[in-house]
Fold:
Amino acid sequence: MDLVSGRGFSVEGFDATEALGKALNNFAVPLGIWTVALLLAGGATLPDFLSGLRVHGPYLVLLGGLLLSLAFRIGRAFFVLASLAAAYFAFLLFVDREPAGAATQAVSAALCVFVPLNITVFTLLRERGILNAPGLRRLCLPLIEAGVIAAILISDAPEFAEVLSRPIVERLALPGIVLPQWGLVFTAAAIVTGVVCAVLRGSVIDAAFAAAAASFALGCNSLPSFGAFAWFCAAAGLIVAFAVVQDSHRLAFYDELTGLPGRRALNERLMAIDGHFTLAMVDIDHFKAFNDTWGHDVGDQVLKLVAAQLQRVGGGGTAYRYGGEEFALLFPGRRGEGVVEHIEALRRRIDEYKVMLRQERRRRETAGTGKAAAADDAPAGKWISVTISIGVAERDSRTDAPAGVIEAADRALYRAKAAGRNRVVSH
Structure:
């Protein structure tokens, strides 16, 4: 995130290039799965020991995805996967086994519309979990859709299929497209919504929803063929299930506020280094005063500001969020004297920038009195400075264990703070 604005830093910023790059990275796995599905649906043969995937693969993928999203409490993915699973079973019951007729057309048309509609809705909604009141309310949408299809089948009314199959624009024919135009509209809405949300939020789940909608549309375009629909439906489920794993991994190893890898990622990286390395512990000076004076919203923006600068450190360093206002910089294979100049340049760069408060802080109540404490209000347009203190240590014969290097860097950091802050001290 680029926070540079005019002479200093704005409290908020949006880097379109960075967001687009992150979104493209989030689309890498879905597009890979989609390509494999295209090959399989096009007639590519599987080895004999994998031939059973054509029949059992969709069951395994959809069930596995549902269990994963349930285990990680990712409700949006759970309901999208539930929609895909319901569509697959509806296809098996009413499209694949039944002769072509009003029931087959009604179910086919409903699948082409309801599934992308659900994907669009759950892309726009924020995450609220599964086994709770919001989850139960969201379950109403697929249940209502299932009830509509059941009512149509029971009443044997062909009007529903006719309405969904009726073209929105007369004489609009797209070569190779047999989807009803309403299905194309809702599929386009699901794809566009997923792509936009993936870019703005940097969300792998939203990217998966967009790719899943496209994959499911390809499957519906092949109806009533079993093979192509099965592969594309399974691919859509696999895309969402894999996104659940990716998102859970991100939550476990990356800090949500700053986007930096967290302490767990740092510990695993340290354990994997056999040779020499240098570690710098970074602490934001007087951070508690930021929160107490300007509010936690400003404190969060200061953390993002410092994290954005730490990511740009030279010398081959990698930045980590260690906890609270403390960060770590890891330089694998580097000696302390070789990276101190890069760390010092980083400290100066942060010291030279100022943070602009864009909005006046709201008045807060003093605990237990109900009275507003106005003394801490921050006037809009005020510039405030940010400085950091840094302690540096390297692996040597005395501190060979990673935990020992961290302790040594912490001791150097404490000395930097005791010496007046806004400085770099080596162990």
In short: The longest strand covers residues 277-284. The radius of gyration is 27 Å. Confidence is low (pLDDT under 50) at residues 1-14, 360-379. The chain is about 60% helix and 10% strand.
